[in-house]
Amino acid sequence: MLRLGWFSTGRGEGSRGLLSVVADAIQHNKLEAEIAFVFCNREAGEDSGSDEYMSLVNSYDIPLFTLSSQRFRRDQAAPQFASIRESYDKEVMALLAGQKSDLNVLAGYGLIFGTEMAKQHVSLNLHPATPDGPIGTWQQVIWELIENSAAESGTMIHIATKDLDRGPPASYVSFPIHGHGFDDLWREVSGQDVNTLKKQHGEKFTLLQRIRQEGLRRERPLLLETLKALTSGRLRVVNHQVVDAEGAPTAPICLNNEVDHILTARCRVEIQIVI
């Protein structure tokens, strides 16, 4: 059985959904795994979103550990968190010293692992782009896609390293961002300067939100199907590298078919409920 550690800031619905889809699959014997612990870099009372997240963790009876990164930064009087990242990670590693996990999942974790943390806690990270796509926050990724009139977007799961969003990829899903449902939105971009659009609309820009929603729809099934690939032996993580069943280095697996099947089944259920 695969023992998972789980790291999250627990800011909103996305973080709760990622935890729930895996915890529910485990409870219903659809995933041979166990969430050994959850770590949150916020503490109770710090934020309503993370408070709700912690309540969810407790409802699954999963051991919960917390250490506020914001309070740690204030206590250290650090102008930027990057300057105390390694010190904070050292405290986290001490807090989790008694916990055992085969692999960790960064699901809505708002911090970057430092060098030593990445070495000791081999972790999977979700990133809102394909393996050869842009790096950075989801906003940075999508604005770059818009600026380049990209044909597709996606989401990948990769090994977290000190190199932002460039660790070895394990799996991914991709989807077109032109065609039905997109072309009218792209016409709003035609002839426009992207920097001007950023200033005028920010995150509320319709095309940006449309691409974001398509990515979010795929995050949960992508994570679940990737964990299934790991528990079945289709993929393995050895020495911070992704290998196949025979132990040979492998390219990231495309899970478009599996994820699309789940999304189609979900739509059918929703239609039946409406009817």
Give a written overview of the molecule.
With 275 residues, the protein is an alpha/beta fold. The protein has one domain (2-274): 3-Layer(aba) Sandwich (Rossmann fold), CATH 3.40.50.170. Helices cover 44% and strands 19% of the residues. The protein contains 10 helices and 10 strands. The chain has helices at residues 13-27, 48-59, 69-76, 85-95, 115-120, 138-147, 183-187, 194-201, 206-232, 256-274, and strands at 2-8, 33-40, 64-66, 103-106, 123-127, 152-159, 169-176, 235-238, 241-244, 253-254. A hairpin with a 2-residue loop joins strand 8 (235-238) and strand 9. The termini are far apart. Residues 271-275 have low confidence and may be disordered.
Reconstruct the topology from this structure.
Blueprint: E1 2-8, H1 13-27, E2 33-40, H2 48-59, E3 64-66, H3 69-76, H4 85-95, E4 103-106, H5 115-120, E5 123-127, H6 138-147, E6 152-159, E7 169-176, H7 183-187, H8 194-201, H9 206-232, E8 235-238, E9 241-244, E10 253-254, H10 256-274
Helix pairs in contact: 1-2, 1-9, 6-9, 9-10
Give structural attributes.
disordered C terminus, Rossmann fold, globular, alpha/beta, 19% strand, eight-stranded mixed sheet
Compact description:
The protein is of the alpha/beta class. The protein is built from ten helices and ten strands.
Order of helices and strands: EHEHEHHEHEHEEHHHEEEH
According to CATH, the homologous superfamily is Formyl transferase, N-terminal domain
| Structural category | alpha/beta
How many domains comprise the coordinates?
Answer: 1
Note the main sheet. 8 strands, mixed
